[in-house]
Amino acid sequence: NTELAPLGVDLGMFRPPEDGKPGGRTLLFVGRLNEEKGLSDVLECYGLLRRSLDVSLVVVGDGILRSKVEQAAVRDPRIRYAGYLAPGELAREYGAATVLVSGAPAETLGLTFLEALASGTPVVGMSGSGLMDSLPRGVVSPVPRREPNLLAEAVAGVLHSPPDPAECRAAVMDYGWDERLEHILRRESALSGTGGDA
Q: How far apart are CA 123 and CA 135, in angstroms?
């Protein structure tokens, strides 16, 4: 007796850039910098791709593995550590990225997925992590196990054949905050016995 009740995304702030995606192939990681979020797997995935593809990596967030990211950025100029960003700056990073990569085995809220897709950016992440398995294939690429080589294979597939940014955004148009809050309130009202049409 469960159902998926995802939160919402600010569709006004997170949107594809008006002048189109910039050139280059940029992987983006957004989240807490810890192993729970699969950061080491994402770094290893990037390293595997870097062997044969011209890619870069942007890491957004903060956490206990910050020094690991900073050291990686010193060793490799194609890695940029952006730190913690205000919402408007974060929206620009999503819009500029080619693909959002998540190594987290359990993205229960999936907010980064929604923000990326609203920004026209496809997502690669773990199967079984909430929204990943309910969003349309083509704009998301679920990976069955937490293995960097599988992440790299999925990311390479997206890089070689990226979806249209408009297709990514269309997949989350029902996840705007107004719609999601209205849905959650209706369900809570129905479950509490106070009526589901409020």
A: 10
pLDDT at 160 over 60: yes
State residue 198's pLDDT score. 46
In sequence order, the 6+-apart residues with CB closer than 8 A to the CB of 107 are 113, 125, 126, 129, 130, 131, 132
Tokens encoding 178: 């107004």
Residue 94: name the closest of 71, 69, 123, 65 by CA.
123
| Cα–Cα nearest to 8, from 115, 159, 116, 117 | 115
Other residues' Cβ atoms within 10 Å of the Cβ of residue 108: 11
Tell whether the torsion through CA atoms of 60, 65, 69 and 70 is positive or negative: positive
Question: 135 and 158 in contact (C-beta within 8 Å)?
Answer: no
Lowest mean pLDDT among 68-77, 126-135, 156-165, 185-194: 185-194
pLDDT tens digits along 76-98:
999 999 999 999 999 999 999 99
Residue type, 76: D
Q: In the numeric block, which tokens belong to residue 52?
A: 């044969």
Residue 160 phi/psi, 5° resolution?
A: -75, -25
- CB contact at 8 A, 11 and 91: no
